[in-house]
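User: Reviewer 2 asked us to show a designed sequence for the structure in our supplementary figure. I'm pasting the structure tokens here. Could you produce the per-position amino acids so we can include them in the response letter?
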């Protein structure tokens, strides 16, 4: 079984995907990690985030082991890291280079230890339209920009990272504009929508489980 969970940043995709992967014993692929990895590589090399050529080369050379290594860097999920990920994700050449890696995972899903899995849950943008358009179940999870910005702001605070709510909100709105302008970024026609603005993760999880089990 292949399940995709699409939607804007901080809508609750990752939390839902993690809980579903654990419950149904499916491999979990956070597709946003590939863009965070390339973005962080750009920062570490002190490259301009507008240097398309260098970003494309880094995307072409990215491997899963390198991605896992980069994910341990404190800046991988920092505010600066998020900005870098968003910048490189808007580059068509970067997206093309990373697409095959993401698509191949659905054909041979594995757990973190390398053992084979019977299916996978994809967490990330365009998962139900571009990466796995033939997924068995597609969810599209969203929430208001203000709610999502506050969630991300609290996440930074909990990690001891300095952040300004207004700046996070501005970044959230700007990222939405870039994402929705990109081809394939609209919800899949057969996606099931959840607005989590006024829902707890437990409520979202319960509804998702019922849908999966009914299928």
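Assistant: Here is a per-position design you can include in the supplement:
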């Amino acid at each position: 079984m292949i399940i995709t969970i699409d939607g804007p940043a901080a809508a609750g995709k990752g939390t839902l995907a993690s809980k579903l992967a654990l419950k149904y014993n499916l491999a979990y692929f956070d597709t946003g990690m590939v863009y965070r990895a390339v973005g962080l590589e750009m920062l570490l090399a002190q490259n301009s985030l507008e240097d398309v050529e260098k970003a494309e080369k880094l995307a072409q050379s990215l491997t899963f082991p390198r991605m896992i290594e980069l994910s341990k860097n404190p800046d991988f999920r920092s505010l600066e890291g998020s900005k870098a990920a968003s910048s490189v994700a808007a580059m068509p050449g970067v997206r093309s280079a990373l697409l095959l890696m993401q698509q191949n995972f659905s054909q041979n899903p594995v757990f973190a230890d390398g053992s084979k899995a019977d299916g996978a849950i994809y967490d990330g943008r365009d998962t139900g339209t571009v990466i796995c358009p033939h997924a068995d179940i597609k969810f599209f999870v969203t929430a208001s920009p203000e709610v999502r910005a506050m969630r991300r702001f609290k996440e930074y605070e909990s990690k001891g990272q300095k952040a300004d709510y207004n700046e996070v909100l501005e970044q959230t709105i700007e990222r939405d504009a870039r994402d929705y302008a990109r081809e394939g970024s609209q919800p899949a026609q057969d996606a099931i929508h959840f607005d989590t603005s006024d829902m707890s993760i437990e409520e979202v999880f319960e509804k998702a489980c019922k849908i999966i089990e009914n299928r």
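For the response letter, you might also mention the following. Residues 165-181 form the longest helix (17 residues). The two ends are 11 Å apart (CA to CA).
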